[in-house]
């Protein structure tokens, strides 16, 4: 096939990109979006500080715009993200009472998941809950600090009740290297969830890489998580300077694992990237395909 989405579809996978609602009117941007990709992730529009900036007042407008556009172009949507310590409004992070926070968290999840019921391929229910470094434990956050370790399980159970057919993912960065303590911590959590019947369907590997691309163990990591009985997805791929080999290696790692169901790059053109200074994407500022584009297409 001649586009990323169509090529990925040949093996039953999707190839997606992060999308910003404010760019949908940019003709170069939307032309590439609708030609190349069969999945999208709202880059910021489904985050708590957009969806529920003040308590109980929900603003689905920007995300609805993305979901509507995607649906009309036959693109799947990843929901990103329900519970995250970042881009969290201060009215949430300043809560000091556990019961209040529990009801606020569950209301946010239920209202949001319910609004998009039937339209979302997979939700990143909890994002980046594990600490960097060697602890293998959760990071501090208002959720962790007030609700304890159980907040992740509670978020997944609440999301499942709201939309039983959406896939529910845990998503994180720096969990691609099998031997890292952070990877092991997430692995133990997923194994525990599967053992106890906590509803989890998938793990998202953000894959924000430096110039070297993925660690050598990335395919092993994907395979080991998949062996727990979850799908795995590459959810926010970008690679400093976009070397062809680094992109090809990342795609090959996914293609070699049958339960690796899709890949999402975190933006279209280098100028769209949150790491714009590193030119980490598949299209240049003019919207032209970079060498890494061809290496990805070939590896799919
Ligand atoms: C980034 C967006 O790309 C930026 O526009 C925003 O300013 C900050 O967040 N991990 C995630 C994504 O899960 O939501 C982040 O996206 C990048 C890191």
UniProtKB/TrEMBL annotation:
The keyword Nucleus is assigned to this record: no
Family: Belongs to the glycosyl hydrolase 10 (cellulase F) family.
EC number, UniProt record: 3.2.1.8
Span within the parent record: 16 to 315 of 355
Class of enzymatic activity (EC top level): hydrolase
Active site: 236 (nucleophile)
Catalytic reaction(s) noted: Endohydrolysis of (1->4)-beta-D-xylosidic linkages in xylans
Keyword presence, Cytoplasm: no
Residues of the GH10 domain: 1-299
Name the record gives this protein: Beta-xylanase
Keywords: Carbohydrate metabolism, Glycosidase, Hydrolase, Polysaccharide degradation, Signal, Xylan degradation
């Amino acid at each position: 096939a001649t586009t990323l989405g169509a090529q990925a579809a040949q093996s039953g996978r999707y190839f997606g990109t992060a999308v910003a609602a404010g760019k949908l009117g940019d003709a170069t941007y939307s032309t590439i979006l609708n030609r190349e990709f069969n999945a999208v992730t709202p880059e910021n529009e489904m985050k708590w500080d957009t969806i529920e900036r003040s308590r109980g007042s929900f603003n689905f407008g920007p995300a609805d715009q993305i979901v509507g556009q995607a649906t009309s172009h036959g693109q799947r949507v990843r929901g990103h993200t329900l519970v995250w310590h970042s881009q969290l409004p201060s009215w949430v992070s300043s809560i000091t009472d556990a019961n209040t926070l529990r009801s606020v968290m569950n209301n946010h999840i239920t209202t949001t998941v319910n609004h998009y019921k039937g339209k979302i391929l997979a939700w990143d229910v909890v994002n980046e809950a594990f600490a960097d470094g060697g602890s293998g434990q959760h990071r501090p956050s208002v959720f962790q600090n007030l609700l304890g370790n159980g907040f992740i399980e509670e978020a997944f159970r609440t999301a499942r009740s709201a939309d039983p057919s959406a896939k529910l993912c845990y998503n994180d960065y720096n969990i691609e290297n099998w031997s890292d303590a952070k990877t092991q911590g997430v692995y133990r959590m997923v194994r525990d969830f599967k053992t106890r019947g906590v509803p989890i369907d998938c793990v998202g590997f953000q894959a924000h890489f430096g110039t070297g691309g993925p660690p050598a163990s990335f395919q092993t990591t994907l395979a080991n998580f998949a062996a727990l009985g979850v799908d795995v997805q590459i959810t926010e791929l970008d690679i400093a300077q976009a070397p062809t080999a680094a992109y090809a290696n990342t795609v090959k790692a996914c293609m070699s694992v049958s339960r690796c169901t899709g890949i999402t790059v975190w933006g279209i053109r280098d100028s769209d990237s949150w790491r714009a200074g590193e030119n980490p994407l598949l299209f240049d500022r003019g919207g032209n395909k970079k060498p890494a584009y061809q290496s990805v297409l070939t590896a799919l």
